[in-house]
Specification:
Chain A: It comes from Funneliformis mosseae (Endomycorrhizal fungus). Chain A: It is found in: Endoplasmic reticulum; Golgi apparatus, cis-Golgi network. The complex is a heterodimer of chains A (188) and B (206). With 188 residues, chain A is an alpha+beta fold. Chain A is built from six helices and four strands; from the N terminus they run ααααββααββ. A four-stranded antiparallel sheet of chain A has the order 1-2-4-3, with helices on one face. Chain B has 206 residues and is α+β, with helices and mostly antiparallel strands. A five-stranded antiparallel sheet of chain B has the order 2-1-5-4-3, sandwiched between helices. The radius of gyration of chain B is 17 Å and the shape is globular. The chains are: A alpha+beta (188), B alpha+beta (206). At the A-B interface, α3 of A face α4 and α5 of B.
Chain lengths: 188, 206
């Protein structure tokens, strides 16, 4: 099953995606974060803003993803995780994070990023950023936004980040609940 | 064609009124098949006649109003169809959209309970029209009414979604993501592109 996803992801990346310069992307993201840090001067606030930006992006990104990938609904959360890592990230960032650390109730998993295109060439400043700022927090927001549009409420946050000096970049994704569809207001 | 978003609001409506020859020998299966909202013609008629008479039942969406008036010229030719439905039935566009949504929603739940698998509800056909339905996992619903003779338009609806909706609406940073207050999709490129696309379909006949 997962091999199939991998193939789908690669095929879409090869054929149906417009590619841009990776360095341009990295530098643009870097300048966004730098500007946010300068404006807010509070790293927690910057984290929140990044997550919010990611959320808005995710809400639209999911439509683009569905249009390209033409997949039906995922049957369970495990499948969702596979699809996200092998197709979603592949299409948009050309990386495939590994899915690990499933919790016992299959409602949580970790994504381990071997390479993070957002954080190439990045060094965090000395003034306490290394303890507070999650540089790639926008990805958490993107996941939250896009999964919310397909009726899954999740929480995503980073646990470790290479640019902070940890061993690996790891994001924890937790399924809170499945959302119910909206019913139109009755007019009886 | 209608587009409903996941909050059960009709965000887009466009119709391509076709002039139906009365009692036309529509032999040759589908020669005269044209895309038109036949079941909704009276309401459209009523609406447009109301508009031209100055007593407009206010449509909920400004985009809908634009479409109504732009197709005004073709509707004056529709005579045969008004006799089919009772004359006094003037439902405005908002009511009509709600009715369509209600039908579609109930049918979808019904089919889902019966078959359980994904995307059971594809289309339904009556003697007057055929309704094609496509839904995305995000809850966006595309509905198109056509002549009964046409084959499944699901792929077409899907194509409208991927090539036009995603391109022009989703990727437009200025278009709202949540449509409050019946604002709808008010996007020139989208309208024009969909219009052009539909007119080139083999099922469309001018």
């Amino acid at each position: 099953m997962s091999k199939q996803y991998k193939q789908i992801g690669e095929e879409i990346w090869k054929n149906r995606v417009e590619k841009i310069n990776a360095e341009l992307f990295t530098l643009t993201y870097g300048s966004i974060v730098a500007q946010l840090v300068k404006d807010y001067e509070d790293y927690q606030e910057v984290n929140k803003q990044l997550e919010k930006m990611g959320y808005n992006m995710g809400v639209r990104l999911i439509e683009d993803f569905l249009a390209r990938a033409s997949l039906g609904r995922c049957t369970d959360f495990r499948e969702t995780a596979e699809v996200i890592s092998k197709i979603g990230f592949k299409i948009f960032l050309n990386i495939t994070p590994t899915v690990t650390n499933w919790s016992s109730n299959n409602k949580e998993f970790s994504l381990i990023f071997e390479e993070n295109p957002l954080a190439e060439f990045v060094e965090l400043p000395e003034d306490g950023a290394a303890d507070e700022l999650w540089y790639s927090n926008i990805l958490c927001g993107v996941l939250r936004g896009s999964l919310e549009m397909v009726q899954m409420q999740v929480e995503a946050n980073f646990i470790s980040d290479v640019i902070r000096g940890d061993d690996q970049t790891e994001m924890r994704v937790k399924l809170v609940k499945y959302l119910e569809e909206e019913v139109p207001a009755g007019e009886d | 064609m209608y587009i409903f978003d996941r909050h059960c609001v009709c965000i887009y409506y466009q119709d391509w009124h076709r002039h139906r020859k009365s009692g036309a020998g529509s032999g040759g299966g589908g020669v005269n098949s044209a895309i038109g909202t036949t079941s909704t013609t009276t309401s459209m008629n009523g609406q447009i006649e109301g508009d031209s008479g100055g007593s407009s039942s206010s449509p909920a969406h400004s985009s809908a109003a634009n479409h109504l008036t732009s197709h005004h010229s073709t509707t004056s030719q529709l005579t045969s169809l008004t006799s089919i439905f009772s004359e006094g039935r003037m439902i405005n566009i908002e009511e009509e959209a709600k009715l369509v949504y209600g039908v579609v929603f109930s049918l979808r739940n019904f089919v889902k309970k019966l078959s359980g698998s994904q995307d059971g509800f594809l289309a339904y056909k009556t003697s007057n029209y055929k309704l094609h339905y496509y839904e995305t996992p995000t809850g966006l619903k595309f509905v198109m009414n056509t002549d009964p003779g046409i084959d499944s338009l699901r792929q077409i609806l899907r194509q409208i979604y991927t090539s036009f909706y995603v391109e022009y609406v989703v990727k437009n940073p200025l278009s709202p993501t949540e449509h409050l207050g019946g604002e709808g999709v008010n996007n020139e490129y989208f309208k024009a592109a969909v219009d052009k696309f539909v007119k080139t379909l083999p099922a469309y006949e001018s």
